[in-house]
Design the sequence.
């Protein structure tokens, strides 16, 4: 079974951002409109609302929610937003300075701004928890692969290079056991390793040390349209035990 192909290096830092308006449906005739910022995160786009500590990704929004962008938005950022799953519209008169609730049908029955903000936050949190409760596959689910950020896993475009299992004073010594181990690894939304399973065994001692070492690895998380998600990957690694 081949090792999963993982891109190396950390995700690029934000290079471009632009003021936008985030429209979120509250009811059939009411929507919450908030000033926000669309950010270029290198491989995907995210939305940040002033006063909120968490970025918003397209899977957290409903099918009725959308972004209103300025017509002079950089082409790269527009394309990145669409590729990241955001529904986008352009408006030459775009200008939002404060959150508000729009009553599209003049019903006079829309909730207030604070109540609307609490409602959309709860709905986003629920969607996020549902999406992140599943373990995904890079191949079948079209997920952006995790990226290694520790020396033990620096070359993941091909099967990983050997990872030494350290013991005191082993420098220059010959390994007691040297073998290739195929691991099934679940990486969590924070980039930590949640679970390790041996798929191709060598010796019991080496297998145990391989699992112990793999649990210390750290990654940039896998992503679904920018949102961190758990993912199962296979890593074939050459281990040495001294």
Sequence:
């Amino acid at each position: 079974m081949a090792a999963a192909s993982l891109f190396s290096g950390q995700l690029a830092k934000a290079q471009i951002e632009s003021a936008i308006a985030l429209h979120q449906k509250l009811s059939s005739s009411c929507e919450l409109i908030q000033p926000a910022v669309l950010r270029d995160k290198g491989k995907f786009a995210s939305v940040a609302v002033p006063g909120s500590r968490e970025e918003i990704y397209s899977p957290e929004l409903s099918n009725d929610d959308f972004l209103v962008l300025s017509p002079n938005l950089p082409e790269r950022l527009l394309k990145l937003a669409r590729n990241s799953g955001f529904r986008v519209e352009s408006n030459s008169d775009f200008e939002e300075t404060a959150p508000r609730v729009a009553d599209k049908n003049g019903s006079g029955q829309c909730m207030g701004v604070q109540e609307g903000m609490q409602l959309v936050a709860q709905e986003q949190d629920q969607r996020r928890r549902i999406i992140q409760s599943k373990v995904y596959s890079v191949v079948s689910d079209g997920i952006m692969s995790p990226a290694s950020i520790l020396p033990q896993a620096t070359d993941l475009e091909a099967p990983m290079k050997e990872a030494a299992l350290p013991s005191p004073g082993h420098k220059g010594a010959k390994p007691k056991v040297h073998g290739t181990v195929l691991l099934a690894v679940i990486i969590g939304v924070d980039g930590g390793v949640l679970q390790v399973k041996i798929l191709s065994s060598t010796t019991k001692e080496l297998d145990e040390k391989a699992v112990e070492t793999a649990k210390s690895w750290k990654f940039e998380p896998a992503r679904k349209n920018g949102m961190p998600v758990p993912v199962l990957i296979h890593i074939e690694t050459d281990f040495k035990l001294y």
